[in-house]
Amino acid sequence: MKPKAANSRHLVPLLAPPVVLIAMLVIGQSDLSQQLENVTVDRRFKKRQASDPPADPRILLVGIGETSLKMIGRWEEWTRDIHGRFLDSLNERKPHLVAYDFFFSEPSKDPAHDEAFAFALELHPGAITGAVADDSRPDAAPYSEPTIGNTEPITNVIGDTRRLIQAPNGPLPIPIIAQTSWTGFVNSPPSRIDGMRRVNPLVVSFGGRIYPSFILQTVMRIDEARAADVEVILGEAVVIRGPDRPERRIPIDDRGMMTLNYRRADTFEPIDYASLMALLERYAETREWPADLPPVEGQYLIVGQMAEGLTDFGPTPLKPREPLVLVQAVALNNILQQDYLTLYPTWRVLVGWLALAWASLWLLRRSSVTLSVAVPLVLVALYIWFAYRLFRVESVQLPLFLPALGFLVAHGSALVDRLVAETRAKSRIKNLFGTYVSPEVVDRMVASGEDPKLGGQTSEITAFFSDVQAFSTFSEKLDAERLVALMIDYLSEMTDILQYRGGSLDKYIGDAIVGMFGAPLPVPDHAYRACCAAIEIQRRQAELREKWRAEGGWPDIVYQMQTRIGLNTGLAVIGNMGSRRRFNYTMMGDNVNLAARCESGSKSYGVYTMVTGETRRAAAAAKDDIAFRYLDKIVVKGRTQPVEMYEVLGYLADLPSSTAGCIEAHAAAMALYLARDWSGALAGFEKAAALEPNQPGGALDIHTNPSLVMIDRCRAYQIHPPADDWDGRYVMETK
Q1: CA–CA separation, 316 vs 46, rounded Å?
Q2: Are residues 265 and 369 in the same domain?
């Protein structure tokens, strides 16, 4: 019988995707889900703005803005003869059409103003004025006339018209204006979810008949089409046909709406209504037109309110507050450039989603946790990138929010199931093997899913060796019980620092600590971490001496305890070493031995932390805040190649001025020493010796220091200088 965890691993990849898919279908109907999806759409609109093409140059947006209100007066004071005057000013540079994105539904106080405006409209056969299908009054008396002035209803409609904007009546142009212009319904309903204008109607149901919207009427005037030339196929397209022009198809949904494909915020650069009128009137006298202004002849003028004090404002995906005449301009631009936003069928995305979820879950069912997390994230990132690119290049809108979230949820549920099963497996393995092998080996065995076996790999690490100075004397001065208590106190503190800095404990050898940095988990700054651990161990050693002194009852040697540390950075073999039955995770190799030599060799120089040049360079490359002192270039016993040795003195920020002076004097003397100036070097080392932080004869039973060692060396070389090809090396006679 297979374990339950194994069965779960096989069932979750099969069951999770359809369960999550059902949840997606349910959640997808909620307002919150649709609002979050809209956020992703808005982000797509904004992100692609830099690559958006320019608007159709034939569209000229004319705004009644602040300048117009200052030049002519408050909107309430505008009379219709002002619009008549504007249309008259266009006679010299006649546009193809003028479309007013507002309505004239009440007669003027002075009928002459209406007559002036109507007369001007007659001189512009393509002029359009607005109407509104008022669906807030379903009980109003239905509009009963067969036409709205010149405007005939569209009779060739295929589909269920009940989902169209429905209104029995509403504000219409007064008869004299309706008969001298074409009527288009300016309804631009905001989204119920977030108030954005995401769609625009092409047809509305008004008084039981189907009439063109403001934008459809504009396109019909451009194409010189009558109502009989228009076919409405709800859920598919509005088709405009004619004998002397190519067929035009405008995609719509089953509500008669076209989805707006917004382009960059500055797609349209509106010109002020009153300013344009003044320019046109001046042109009639001077025949001069500003070179920096767009032409007017043959263009499609859309006139709308753009002053902040007026009411025709609302949010769009590009800005939180825009004049809504821009929505009409966007719709017209989409149609003229055939730049439609295509909503990719959701069912196709879900079929692909289900297939990908099943395939990826099945392939990752036995992979590592890291891969099980990374692969879904990468796949979701690729889908998001593809959705953004498809939106930018092809104006195809893929659903983004729920597919991405659902994919992560499906993989997350499978991952949680795996983690629960693996946690149980880890607990079982630790219970079985934890009392026999080290915790490190148990953790690696659990991570690999295999039984431990002999073998290793080569990795770059920093090897760490520490030893208590003169520890054999401690054994003579303390009985076994007190010695154990002292070592527990000491080793606990030192090991905590080692592990806090990211080191791994290899083993204890009596009072000695053997550790490594950079294994079993690789870290790029392992040399720097090891040096920091050495500094903090020496600092903690001093604190422990004071602690033991405060406790009292210890022999004096305890108050003088010193730890020597050796570090070396390089390649070593890391892995499970030992016999076929008993082994431990450890390190081996020449670079490990060299770290041990650094620890033992530090005694010869009177220092307590000695590291190789490799460690010093690697640590300084990671962060240059540690004080190193060059000690010597030595050939350790058993090696033929010299190795540079350095002392670690502490953090630069904590260095006393006397110690900094000692380093400077020692470095100057060392330069003379390497130049074979024995007398000059001797004087320099004597100067440095006076500043050494560790002086012989002190409370810590120190016998020498680096400056004293080099003083003796210089005196010896004065009598017996090295060979002419000497490169600064010194051959160690002891380990």
Answers
A1: 11
A2: no
